Design the sequence.
C-alpha cells in the first residue's frame, strides 16, 4: 500500500492520498501541472517535503536504492545506457524464464533484446522499458504515459498485463492523457491543478 | 657548454618580432591590435614579476615563502579549472573540488619527486619545489578540467539513462559508471598524447630549458623522462579524485541526480 502525507511539489497544494494493494490511481492534469514531478518525487528522484510510506516503510528512512525497488518509476521517455536492452535485465538463470514470459506477454520477440537499442522502434523501446521495470515485481508502479507510442493492439496487451499485476496486489499510479485508458484501469483518480492557476497564467512546473 | 646571459637590448630586439603579429592584424583587418598590445604587455609584466618573486624567494631561508607561493599557484589553478567548465555548478564546493584535488596531487607528486627522486639537501629548496609543482599543476589542471567538464556535460545529456538506472535501484556510482568512465578517459588523453609526441613532434619545455642553460642533453633527457612519469601519475590521480568528487557534487545522499545544482549552460 502506498500512503502519501502532505507531499509538497512546486506550486501544487500539499497532496495526501492512499493507494491500496491492487488499486490503480489515474493521475490527470494538463501539461505542466506537475504530474511528472509528482511521479519523480514519489520515486525519490527529486527532493520534496512530506512523507511517503510503502507498506509502512517511510521514504527517507529507507535506503534510496531500496526505495526505488519498492516504488518503481517508468519515465515517459525511458533512457538506455547500454548498446542492447539485454544488459538492463538480470542474468540469473532462474529469472530467464520469468523474462521470457514477461516479454511474450508484451509481444516482444526475444531477439529484440540483442538488437542495438538505437535500431528499435519507439514502441519497442517503450515496452522493453516497461518489462525491465516489472521484472523484479515492485509493489508500487508509477507509469508516465506507458502506451503513448503503442498501437491499439499492443496498448491492449500492456493494459492486460497491468490488470494482471493489479490482481496480484501491485499498486499502480497511471499518468495518462488518454481519459478512456484511465477509465478502463483506475479505481480512483487524482486531478492536478496548480494553486492560483488563474493569476499565474497557468504557468506550472515543467 | 656555457650559459649565455640576455640583457634588455636583446629583449627589445626580440620584441620587434611581435610587429609581425601587428602587421598580420592590420593587413587582414582582424582588429586584434589592441588585444595584442595588452596581452604582450601583460605577458612581459607577469613574467618579469614572477622572475623577481622567484629570485626573492630563492634568497629566503624560511620555506614558508615557498609554501605561500605554492598555495597561490594551487588556488589560481583551481580557479582556472572552474572557469573552463561549460556547465558550472553553483556554490563554493566546485572551487574546493578544483583546488583541493590539486593540493593533494601537487603535494604528493612534488614531495615524491623532489624529496624522493631528485634529493637535493635540503630537499625543500624552492629552486626544485616550485618548478616541479608548476609542471604538475599545469598538466593535472588540464586533465581535471577536462574530466569535470566532460562529466557535467555528459550527465546533463545522459540524464534519462542515468535516471533510468537510478529508478531501477542502482546507486549513484553504478548509475553514473559509464559517464565517469568517459570523463576519466577524456581527462587522461592529453597526457597520453603528450607522452607519445614528446621528443619527436615536440621538445618538452623543461628539457629545452636545461639544454639552453648548458646541461648535457642526456642529463636533460633523464630529467624530462622522470618528470613525464610524475606528471602522468599525478594527472591520473587528480582525474580520478576529481571524477568521483564531481559525481558526489551533482548527486545527493539520496542518490538523486541533481542537475539543478548546475548553472544554465554558458553561451560559448
Sequence:
Amino acid at each position: 500500500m502506498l500512503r502519501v502525507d502532505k507531499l509538497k511539489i512546486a506550486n501544487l497544494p500539499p497532496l495526501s492520498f492512499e493507494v491500496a494493494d491492487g488499486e490503480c490511481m489515474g493521475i490527470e492534469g494538463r501539461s505542466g501541472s506537475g504530474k511528472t514531478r509528482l511521479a519523480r518525487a514519489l520515486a525519490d528522484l527529486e527532493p520534496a517535503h512530506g512523507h511517503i510510506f510503502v507498506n509502512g516503510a517511510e521514504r527517507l528512512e529507507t535506503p534510496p536504492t531500496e526505495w526505488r525497488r519498492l516504488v518503481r518509476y517508468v519515465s515517459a521517455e525511458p533512457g538506455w545506457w547500454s548498446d542492447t536492452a539485454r544488459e538492463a535485465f538480470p542474468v540469473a538463470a532462474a529469472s530467464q524464464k520469468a523474462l521470457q514470459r514477461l516479454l511474450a506477454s508484451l509481444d516482444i520477440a526475444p531477439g529484440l533484446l540483442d538488437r542495438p537499442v538505437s535500431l528499435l522502434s519507439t514502441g519497442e523501446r517503450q515496452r522493453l522499458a516497461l518489462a525491465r521495470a516489472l521484472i523484479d515485481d515492485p509493489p508500487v508502479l508509477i507509469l508516465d504515459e506507458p502506451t503513448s507510442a503503442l498501437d491499439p493492439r499492443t496498448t491492449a496487451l500492456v493494459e492486460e498485463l497491468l490488470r494482471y499485476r493489479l490482481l496480484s496486489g501491485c499498486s499502480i499510479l497511471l499518468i495518462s492523457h488518454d481519459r478512456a485508458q484511465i477509465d478502463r484501469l483506475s479505481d480512483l483518480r487524482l486531478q492536478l491543478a496548480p494553486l492560483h492557476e488563474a493569476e499565474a497564467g497557468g504557468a506550472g512546473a515543467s | 657548454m656555457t650559459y649565455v646571459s640576455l640583457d634588455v637590448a636583446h629583449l627589445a630586439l626580440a620584441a620587434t618580432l611581435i610587429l609581425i603579429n601587428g602587421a598580420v592584424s592590420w593587413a587582414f583587418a582582424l582588429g586584434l591590435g589592441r588585444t595584442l598590445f595588452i596581452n604582450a604587455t601583460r605577458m612581459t609584466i607577469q613574467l618579469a614579476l614572477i622572475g623577481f618573486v622567484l629570485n626573492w624567494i630563492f634568497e629566503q631561508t624560511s620555506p614558508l615563502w615557498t609554501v605561500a607561493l605554492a598555495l597561490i599557484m594551487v588556488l589560481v589553478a583551481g580557479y582556472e579549472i572552474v572557469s573552463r567548465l561549460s556547465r558550472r555548478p553553483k556554490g563554493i564546493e566546485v572551487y574546493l573540488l578544483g583546488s583541493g584535488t590539486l593540493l593533494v596531487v601537487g603535494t604528493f607528486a612534488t614531495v615524491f619527486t623532489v624529496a624522493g627522486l631528485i634529493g637535493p639537501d635540503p630537499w625543500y629548496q624552492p629552486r626544485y619545489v616550485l618548478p616541479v609543482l608548476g609542471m604538475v599543476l599545469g598538466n593535472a589542471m588540464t586533465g581535471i578540467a577536462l574530466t569535470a567538464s566532460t562529466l557535467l556535460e555528459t550527465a546533463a545529456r545522459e540524464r534519462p539513462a542515468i535516471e533510468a538506472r537510478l529508478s531501477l535501484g542502482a546507486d549513484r556510482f553504478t548509475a553514473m559508471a559509464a559517464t565517469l568512465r568517459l570523463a576519466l578517459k577524456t581527462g587522461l588523453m592529453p597526457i597520453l598524447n603528450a607522452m607519445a609526441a614528446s621528443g619527436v613532434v615536440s621538445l618538452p619545455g623543461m628539457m629545452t630549458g636545461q639544454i639552453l642553460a648548458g646541461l648535457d642533453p642526456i642529463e636533460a633527457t633523464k630529467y624530462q623522462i622522470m618528470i613525464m612519469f610524475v606528471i602522468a601519475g599525478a594527472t591520473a590521480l587528480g582525474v580520478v579524485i576529481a571524477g568521483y568528487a564531481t559525481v558526489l557534487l551533482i548527486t545527493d545522499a539520496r542518490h538523486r541526480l541533481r542537475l539543478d545544482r548546475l548553472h544554465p549552460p554558458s553561451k560559448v
Remarks:
- Chain A touches chain B through 25 residues (CB under 8 Å).
- Residues 198-206 of chain A have pLDDT under 50 and may be disordered.
